[in-house]
User: What shape does this take?
Amino acid sequence: MRSPLVLYWDSSALVSVLVPDPQREEALRWAQSPATHVISTLAWTEVLAVIARFQRERKISARAAEAAREEIGQAPWERFQDSPDWAILHELASRWTLPGADLWHLALAKTLQQERPELRLLSFDDRLSKAAAGEGLAATTST
Assistant: This one.
């Protein structure tokens, strides 16, 4: 029997579900897919910061910001606390040119994939998506 898909959502994918942007339609399709959807404390933190910034910059209303904060705490996302394996971080840092947070997301997904080979990383960030594809982790290559 085939294992169900596990999707690790980075912050770019989460933001696309929560606020209007060009990838929203695709992000919503992924959110409705029959998979286990996981988010890390880093993704949670990054998304909360983006929502607050959008509200300050008046890109979204206070009401929309509150709705987005509520939505990120609900299904389909399962929140978890974990850290990437230090050796995997070291290995990936020498292979990919990524900002620190993106490297962290990639390394955590690679770490989790050791126990859940069906895990894929969902990102709409071009560099992170390419690195995830290079590691056999990408859920999608579109950006």
Remarks:
- The chain has one domain: 6-134.
- Strands lie at 6-9, 36-40, 77-80, 119-122.
- DSSP finds seven helices and four strands in the chain.
